Predict the 3D structure of the following.
Amino acid sequence: MAWPQQRTRWTRPLPTHRILPSVLVREWIGAEQRIAESISMDAADLKNLQAPLKQRYRDDPASAVITLTASGDIDDSAIACKVDTGRAMIEAGLHPATGGSGTQACSGDMLLEALVACAGVTLRAVATALEFDLKGGRVTAEGDLDFAGTLGVSRQTPVGFKAIRLSFDLDTGEPADRIETLTRLTERYCVVFQTLKSPPPLTLEIRSGA
């Protein structure tokens, strides 16, 4: 489907002064996902769905804290890690810029795809709650990386993304002030965006079966 010529575009760059840890990512990545065109629920449906959850979290704040987990199996021969997504098994490997074949998933792509998915779902939920006239759109995440740092060629070059940009192309006729509200609330409530923007404490531990 071709989008109308007149579209609204807004971009939210993530801070460039923070270097995000990653070893497998293209120097220039575009990870795109279409926003669903159809609205599966209206504002009243969404409110009714979330109202009991909000009340539970007010009554019992501890019930709102949930630990999400992800795990993968390290290959015993190839340089790869098989990650169970709950829907399918994804085998991640080296990016071509680090010697990979390009046939395996790139963990850098997966990070950007998580940002795209979270931002797209968040924007759709906010638009529904605001009764925002949104006919569809596309969300894109791009990340820049210097592989001289990844391969240890230059110790002065940080390892990880130098910058990440998130943008939306929306099919909407809403006025600028409504779009600004949608922008602000999407940024505020997108879990992955906020995690990358203000990183939480991050630890690494290696355990041995010996």
Observations:
- The two ends are 57 Å apart (CA to CA).
- The first helix runs from residue 43 to 59.
- Strands lie at 8-13, 28-35, 72-74, 80-84, 89-93, 136-145, 161-171.
